[in-house]
Amino acid sequence: MAYNLLKGKRGIIFGALDNKSIAWKTAERVHEEGGRFVLTNAPVALRMGTLSELGDKTGAEIIPADATSLEDLESLVEKAQEILGGKLDFVLHSIGMSINVRKNKPYTENNYSFTEKGWDVSALSFHKTMQVLYKKEAMNEWGSILALTYAAAQRVFPDYNDMADNKAYLESIARSFGYFFSEKFKVRVNTISQSPTPTTAGTGVKGFDGFMAFADKMAPLGNASAEDCADYIIAMFSDLTRKVTLQNLYHDGGFTKMGVSNDVMTIFERGMEK
User: Fold this and answer.
1) pTM check: above 0.90
2) What's the CATH superfamily of 10-273?
3) Which residues of the chain have pLDDT under 70?
């Protein structure tokens, strides 16, 4: 059901790859709620995904951009305003990559050149994006900038590897840059800490299926889906959340507040009986 929550609003959505992506689901929901946007991803990701399908469906133009390149980001922000006809109201940063994870490098044996590349893509790109938006004064007052994160920024999930470090840095950037954006331009900056979600990137983490099942049993409301997250993002982009900023917002069915659940204890006790 749509409520025209984003009617007349303009923005940029980073990171949609295929129809499993949270960014993809968000773009569909923004379109349903009356928002207009451009889609962007790295040129290599555009070759791998099916973003043109999403562009056709939502009437969104696609602008290739490397989010680690200030030059590409400057061009992206300028073109987005030209295409959409004015300053922006929302930006979604939905980008993450770990070469160490892809190459099955244990955290204790990380290749540091891989670490630096993953950090640049997954976290520093958020600072670069906001720096460009800030310097160009590209956001309207009461706009909303969001990045997606995960609870491994606060807790140990061994196979999440250096992505945990990246997410911790990402959240710090949101708070620190968010202060300046909120103070000067009345623009909100927040992160959403989402449940484990079976996106193309998420399923590349070792043991993902087992952990997703565990999280679902631990969370009293169960895991939040990509569609659920898209709905939450819509709320955060809308005028209904104007005074929410500098927050890391948990969207995980209650998982991060749990010590243990009855379902998990039952499974554990059954295992002890064998």
Assistant:
1) yes
2) NAD(P)-binding Rossmann-like Domain (3.40.50.720)
3) 200-205, 272-274
